[in-house]
Write a structure and sequence with these properties.
The structure is a single chain. The protein is an alpha+beta fold. The chain folds into three domains: about 120 residues, Topoisomerase, domain 3, CATH 1.10.268; about 90 residues, no CATH class; about 140 residues, DNA gyrase/topoisomerase IV, subunit A, C-terminal (Neuraminidase). It contains eight helices and 19 strands. The strands form five sheets. A four-stranded antiparallel beta sheet has the order 3-1-2-6, with no helix packed on it. The chain is elongated, with a radius of gyration of 36 Å. It starts with a helix and ends with a strand.
Length: about 400
C-alpha cells in the first residue's frame, strides 16, 4: 500500500542519514588526530626539525620523543621541512576547535533517535523548498453511485463455484447439479457458495487478512472462471477459505494455536483491494475453517492428541478482529485439530480402532469450561467430530 511504501522510504532515509553521520564522524576523528600531532610539532618545531635532520630513523625517534601515533608521525614526515617551519598555531587551534564542536554534534545525533529523525525532517523540507513544484495530480470529488447504477445488477440467486486452486465463476440458481463442471488440468472442485448476485464474497488469507469481492464482478459459468487472486492483493499470503453470507451472520474463528473468537460476517468486509487485518495468526499456526453459528449453542474442540472439550458458545468472546481468547488448554507443542458447533452438549466421535471404523457419542466428562484441557476420547485414532443434534 502507499502507507507501506512511504514507511519503507522513511526507514531507508533514516538509515542513510545514520550511515552518512557515522562516515562524517570517522573523517572528523581522523582529521582531529592529525591536527593534534601537528599542534605538538608546532610547539616543538625546532626540536622536531633537528630530529628529522639528524636521526637515521626519524619516525621512530618522533614517536618515542613526543608519544605520537604511527599515523601522526607519517603525516609529519610527509610535510617538507620548509612547510613544517611555516605551521601556524592559531589556524591549527581554530580548525581543532571547529572539528571538536562538529564531532560533539555528530555524537549527539547518533545517540538520539529523536534528533536523527528531526535531522531527516529538516533535510526533506529543505529539498522540498529547493526542488518542489506545484502538484500535477488532479484531486477531484469522488463520484457517488446512483440508485440506477446499483440497480443495474439484478438481484437473483446464484451459485459461486470455486476450484481447489482458487478459480471462481458464477452460475445462476441454487441447488445446481455441479457434477459436470469442468476445471483446468491439475485443478478440481473446491467449494460452492449459494448466495445472491448483489452479495459480496469474502476471502480469508493464511496471513489473517480478509478481502471482499463483489459476486457481480465474477465471470459467468460459461468458461473456466478467473483466479480470485486477480481481484485482490493477497501479498505473501494464500487463500485459506472463501465464504459468503449476510453482514449479521455470526461466525466462529478458530486457529490451531487454540485461540479464537466470535464475529459477524460484516466484520470481514473491506473496501480496500489490499483487504483488512482480521485475525492475528501466531507463528506456526493456521486458521481453521470458519463455522456458521446460527442455530447452535455449544462448541466442541478436539486437540491433536485426542482430548475433547465441549462448552457453551456464550463463553466465547465477541470481537471484530484480533487474537481472540483461549478455546482449549494446550501445552507447548500441542495444537487444536478441529472445532464443531452443535445444538446441545453432545457430538458424535468417529475414528478407527484396529483398522475398523468406530462411532462414539461424547460423554459428560468431555463437558467443561472454556480454556480447560478437556478429556481423552479413548483408544481411537483418526478422530473426527460430527455435530449430534439433540
Amino acid at each position: 500500500s502507499l502507507v507501506d511504501l512511504i514507511g519503507e522510504w522513511c526507514t531507508f532515509r533514516i538509515r542513510t542519514v545514520h550511515r552518512r553521520t557515522e562516515f562524517r564522524l570517522q573523517k572528523a576523528d581522523d582529521r582531529i588526530h592529525i591536527l593534534e600531532g601537528r599542534h605538538i610539532v608546532f610547539l616543538n618545531i625546532d626540536e622536531v626539525i633537528r630530529i628529522i635532520r639528524q636521526s637515521d630513523e626519524p619516525k621512530a625517534a618522533l614517536i618515542a620523543r613526543f608519544t605520537l601515533s604511527d599515523r601522526q608521525a607519517e603525516d609529519i614526515l610527509e610535510i617538507r621541512l620548509r612547510q613544517l617551519a611555516r605551521l601556524e598555531g592559531i589556524r591549527i587551534e581554530q580548525e581543532l576547535a571547529k572539528l571538536r564542536g562538529e564531532r560533539e554534534g555528530l555524537l549527539k545525533l547518533l545517540g538520539s533517535d529523536a534528533l536523527l529523525r528531526r535531522q531527516v525532517i529538516r533535510e526533506i523540507r529543505a529539498d522540498a523548498e529547493k526542488h518542489g513544484d506545484a502538484r500535477r495530480t488532479m484531486i477531484e470529488t469522488a463520484v457517488t453511485s446512483s440508485r440506477s447504477e446499483v440497480a443495474a445488477v439484478a438481484d437473483e440467486p446464484v451459485t459461486v463455484i470455486i476450484s481447489e486452486k482458487g478459480w471462481a465463476r458464477v452460475r445462476q440458481g441454487h441447488g445446481l447439479d455441479l457434477s459436470g463442471v469442468a476445471f483446468k488440468d491439475g485443478d478440481r472442485a473446491g467449494s460452492a457458495q449459494e448466495c445472491r448476485s448483489v452479495d459480496s464474497l469474502v476471502i480469508v488469507s493464511t496471513e489473517g487478512r480478509a478481502f471482499t469481492v463483489a459476486v457481480a464482478s465474477l465471470p459467468d459459468g460459461r468458461g473456466m472462471g478467473a483466479p480470485l487472486s486477480s481481484f485482490v492483493e493477497l501479498g505473501a499470503g494464500r487463500i485459506a477459505q472463501v465464504l459468503t453470507g449476510r453482514p449479521e451472520d455470526p461466525l466462529l474463528v478458530a486457529k490451531t494455536s487454540g485461540y479464537g473468537f466470535i464475529c459477524c460476517y460484516g466484520d470481514l468486509l473491506s473496501r480496500q483491494k489490499a483487504g483488512k487485518a482480521f485475525v492475528s495468526v501466531e507463528e506456526g499456526a493456521t486458521i481453521l475453517p470458519l463455522l456458521r453459528l446460527a442455530g447452535h449453542d455449544h462448541l466442541a474442540a478436539l486437540s491433536e492428541d485426542g482430548r475433547l472439550l465441549i462448552f457453551p458458545l456464550d463463553q466465547m468472546k465477541r470481537l471484530s478482529s484480533g487474537k481472540g481468547v483461549q478455546i482449549i488448554g494446550l501445552r507447548e507443542g500441542e495444537s487444536l485439530r478441529a472445532v464443531v458447533v452443535t445444538r446441545g452438549a453432545r457430538v458424535t466421535i468417529k475414528g478407527t480402532v484396529r483398522s475398523r471404523t468406530k462411532t462414539l457419542l461424547s460423554e459428560d466428562r468431555h463437558c467443561g469450561l472454556r480454556a480447560r484441557r478437556g478429556s481423552p476420547v479413548g483408544q481411537i485414532s483418526n478422530v473426527t467430530l460430527v455435530a449430534h443434534p439433540e
